[in-house]
Amino acid sequence: MNLRMLLSTLLLVTIFFIGSKAFAQGADQQEMMKKWDEYMTPGPAHQEFAKMAGNWKATVTNYDPSGQTMKSDGSAAFEMVLGGRYMKLTFKSSMMGMPLEGLGYDAYDNATKEYISIWMDTFGTGLIYLKGKMDEKTKSIIYSGTSVDPMSGKEMQVKTVMKKIDENHCLMEMYMIEEGKEIKNMEIDYTRVK
């Protein structure tokens, strides 16, 4: 093989290598764009969140360890934000004679197939962070996560259940988990304001 033929062969191999690498990168980029599009596009779970949009009356029942209950009324406004990707909840009520304001965000992560909920309110300076799945049998989103116990300064396990009863009624139940036992500490009965 003469030098000219060797150089031509090397040039063709180099062009082939660069071309196939660019083609592979193009295919990888197309796959990446497809995955991002699937990740960022609101789907059925987000459409279900959107059905909650509007103003709601909230009847709050708090349970103390002795079994006593304390009731209060409140209001809630649900709205979709960031192009229908997240549901925002603005909440007002009272607890123990003091005004309570809260703010929550709910999401459905298309990649992990999980529901995510964060909550903050004027009765604390931390966040409650929860993840969950839909229970198709009960049509409820069952979340679990952690909150801080202000008495001990330690994290405690929390579970909430958000059940849609119909288009105008839903129920949220919250449980603290102590030594593996669920203790119901709050219930909010939501009724849509028409």
Give a short summary of the structure.
It is built from 2 helices and 10 strands; from the N terminus they run H-H-E-E-E-E-E-E-E-E-E-E.
Walk me through this protein's architecture.
This protein is α+β, with helices and mostly antiparallel strands and 194 residues long. It has two domains: 40 residues; 149 residues, Beta Barrel (Lipocalin), CATH 2.40.128.20. It is built from two helices and ten strands; from the N terminus they run H-H-E-E-E-E-E-E-E-E-E-E. A hairpin with a 2-residue loop joins strand 9 and strand 10. The relative contact order is 0.12.
What ranges have pLDDT less than 50 throughout 5 or more consecutive residues?
Answer: none
Radius of gyration from CA coordinates: 26 Å
Pairing-aware structural class of the strands and helices? alpha+beta
CATH architecture assignment of the largest domain: Beta Barrel
Percent of sequence in beta strands: over 45%
Largest sheet descriptor: 10 strands, antiparallel, barrel
CATH superfamily of the largest domain: Calycin beta-barrel core domain
What order do the helices and strands follow? HHEEEEEEEEEE
Number of helices: 2
Query: Largest sheet, order of strands side by side?
Result: 1-2-3-4-5-6-7-8-9-10
Report the average pLDDT across residues: 88
- Quickly name the level 1 CATH class of the largest domain: Mainly Beta
Number of domains: 2
Gross geometry? elongated
Termini separation (Å)?
Answer: 87 Å
Write down the CATH topology of the largest domain: Lipocalin
Oligomeric category: single chain
Helix content: 10-25%
**Overall number of strands:** 10
